[in-house]
Amino acid sequence: MRTGHDLELVHVTKRYPNGAVAVDNVSHLFQAGSYVCLLGPSGCGKSSTLRMIAGHETVSDGAILLSNRDVSALPPAKRGTAMMFQSYALFPHLTVRDNVAFSLKMKGVDRSTRDKRAMELLELVDMQRHQDRLPDQLSGGQQQRVALARALITDPQVLLLDEPLSALDPFLRIRMRTELKKLQRELGITFIHVTHGQDEALALADEIVVMNNAVIEQAGPARDVWMRPRSEFVARFMGGHNVIDLAGGKAAIRADAVRIGTQGQSATVINVEYQGAHVALATKMGESDILALIPEAEFFENPKNPGESVFLTWDEGRLHRLQA
Ligand code: ADP
């Protein structure tokens, strides 16, 4: 793994001309060589953050440092970053090879050198056989791989990916995400991947940065963010948790820690969904919606139906206090 190419946001703010504050005084250190997912609902400031790092958007306040060098005022090509655009951004009239070689052509690199390098990148993404095709002769997943090769040809220290999998069907999305992760491990460079999908972030990220309302709500290793959400927002957004009111504040309890007992909190079953390994039991406990994920064998020993009353129990030790 490389070292020294940390990327740092220092009190970064993005204010658009219409007055919208898309990113509000955000500071964060992205460790060199890590796979980071910027996760949050639509409109929370993920893309603005990514575009400022790439240099496609100006920074209103603050600074962006890469390898301790302030890159905030540099043009995109001079930063050491590269952005993977969506597949539709491939030039339709250029072959796969020429698409990948494009930025080297702009730099004045001679044809044989840039073709050789383009072929190396195409091999990396396993697209060398399709070098002479035009983009519209490729599937969606193949176009994504070409877009990836095109971004990587500049040897970036940081690759920026804006919702790279959102245009793919679910099957391909999971395959491509495996390939992205493998590629990042092989290259050892930093990937910063914007997504609004919790599953995608959990599957890929060494670090998850959860954004909400133009600020970072929580950042940390994927497992930490999922196991120990700091706020109600993160608990609800990451999913898999119930938020309940306790005297003195709110707490989260994981859906797979809730059990049906012979005594406990009384609740009414609203819906029963068979999910294979688990059965998801949606219940109403007072005003709260509580989801219980019951291992399927345990559920079918004593099945429940919508409308039935049940007692919910959990180990107090598994309650996790949330910040107000
Ligand atoms: P996300 O990627 O999380 O969906 P964005 O960074 O695209 O969020 O947007 C954050 C906020 O900034 C939103 O309220 C959005 O409407 C606003 N915004 C984004 N781009 C522009 C722009 N070019 N001009 C004005 N407002 C913008």
Q: How would you describe this protein?
A:
- By secondary structure, the protein is an alpha+beta fold.
- The protein folds into 2 domains: 7-227, Rossmann fold (3-Layer(aba) Sandwich), CATH 3.40.50; 240-321, Beta Barrel (OB fold (Dihydrolipoamide Acetyltransferase, E2P)), CATH 2.40.50.140.
- Helices cover 28% and strands 33% of the residues.
- It is built from 9 helices and 18 strands.
- The strands form 4 sheets. The chain has a 6-stranded mixed β-sheet with strand order 6-7-8-3-9-10, with helices on both faces. The chain has a 5-stranded antiparallel β-sheet with strand order 13-17-14-15-16.
- A hairpin with a 3-residue loop joins strand 14 and strand 15 (278-285).
- Helix 2 (96-106) packs across helix 3.
- The longest helix has 18 residues, at 170-187.
- The protein is globular and about 75 Å long.
- The protein starts with 6 loop residues before the first strand and ends with a strand.
- The mean pLDDT is 94.
- The chain binds adenosine-5'-diphosphate (ADP).
- Adenosine-5'-diphosphate binds next to helix 1.
- Residues 16, 18, 20, 22, 40, 42-48 line the site of adenosine-5'-diphosphate.
